[in-house]
Every structure is written in C-alpha cells, then in structure tokens.
Design brief:
mainly beta, ten-stranded antiparallel β-sheet, 10 strands, 4% helix, 68% strand, elongated
Length: 196
C-alpha cells in the first residue's frame, strides 16, 4: 500500500511546504513486512533578489524478518534518516544559481552517522526559454531498504540485511536541457558519481 499527502502555502515573500508525507507498506509471501514513513517540509523567504530556504526530511523505515530467518542482532531493526537542506537561490541577469548543502544523519545497526554533501546548481540559457546549459555539484544519502532493492530487482532474497544506506559523496553532472513545447522536452548530460 502507499499513501501521499501534500499541502503548500504561499504568503507574500514567504513560501512553505508545511505538510508533505508518504506512508508505504510492503508484505511478501515469506512473512517480510516493511513499513516506511516519510515527512518532508520546508520554508523560505525572498529578500530583494535573493531567496533563502530550508528543507527538512525525516524518513523512518523498519523491516520485519522473513518467517524462516533466525533471530540475530540485526533482526527487525528500525532505521531512520534525518536530512536538512539550507539553500540560497538567485538569478543574475541570465544565470540561475542555487547554492546550499545537505546535512544527513542516519541511524542503522551501528552508531549514528553524519554526512555532509554539497548542493550547487547553475544554469544559463543558450536560447531563452528553449535550451539551457547546466552544471551541478551535489550529493546525498540514498535510502537502501527491502522495497528499494525489490523495485530494482524483484528476485532479491527476503533474508537480505541492511547495515547502511548508500552515500553519494559527490555527484558531478552537466549538459543541455530544454523544452520545444509543453509536450516535448529533452535532457542530455554526462554524470560522475562517487559513492560509499
């Protein structure tokens, strides 16, 4: 099952995403049950030409072991990720700039781990409102759960154990993107990712 709820509010120069949440559940034929609850929010304010914002995200997920598994220290473990994303946006003449960072804290079977990632995006129009050149330097913590694995590979064994999430320490990408109409768009890019 899956459920999603979202509420956005704009008031003057303030914008806020006051309620955005997801609830997902997964059951399989081997007794595996995984529940995932995610809450996102954020706010921002425009000062002159500058926009300052803060995004927050809390993701709680728990996998109950398959019926045939033996109980061990990593059985039926609750895990969570908390992420904060302060950022600054500004349009200079024709250049769109976003500068910020992602700070994530994850709790898995071991001690709590903190991660720091850049979040920089630049785009420049080549043909106004049609073609843009862009470059990004980003990173982020990507959740690894039974659902994310079975979405990629439906033959994943139910007894798989998750000791940590995937940390995309550095993601460099750049290329061209554009819109020819409201129904035709394109994105051509090269990308390099360093993950642990």
């Amino acid at each position: 099952f899956s459920s999603r709820r979202r509420h956005t509010r704009l008031q003057g120069d303030w914008s806020s995403d006051v309620c955005s949440s997801d609830l997902n559940g997964l059951n399989d034929n081997f007794g595996v049950v995984e529940n995932d609850f995610n809450v996102r929010g954020g706010a921002g304010k425009k000062f002159d030409e500058n926009y300052f914002g803060l995004g927050l995200n809390f993701d709680y997920f728990k996998k109950q072991d398959a019926d045939f598994e033996k109980f061990d220290i990593n059985s039926n473990e609750s895990r969570n990720i908390v992420t904060m994303n302060p950022h600054f946006r500004r349009d200079f003449d024709k250049i769109h700039l976003n500068v910020g960072f992602n700070f994530s804290i994850e709790h898995n079977s071991g001690p709590v781990t903190a991660h720091f990632y850049p979040d920089v995006n630049v785009s420049v129009p080549i043909a106004e409102h049609v073609v843009y050149i862009f470059a990004d330097v980003t990173g982020g913590l990507q959740k690894t759960s039974y659902k994310t694995l079975t979405d990629e590979n439906p033959f994943t064994i139910p007894s798989v154990k998750f000791l940590h999430n995937q940390s995309n320490d550095l993601v460099l990408d750049g290329g061209l993107k554009g819109n020819f109409s409201s129904q035709v768009s394109f994105n051509a890019m090269v990308k390099y990712t360093k993950m642990t």
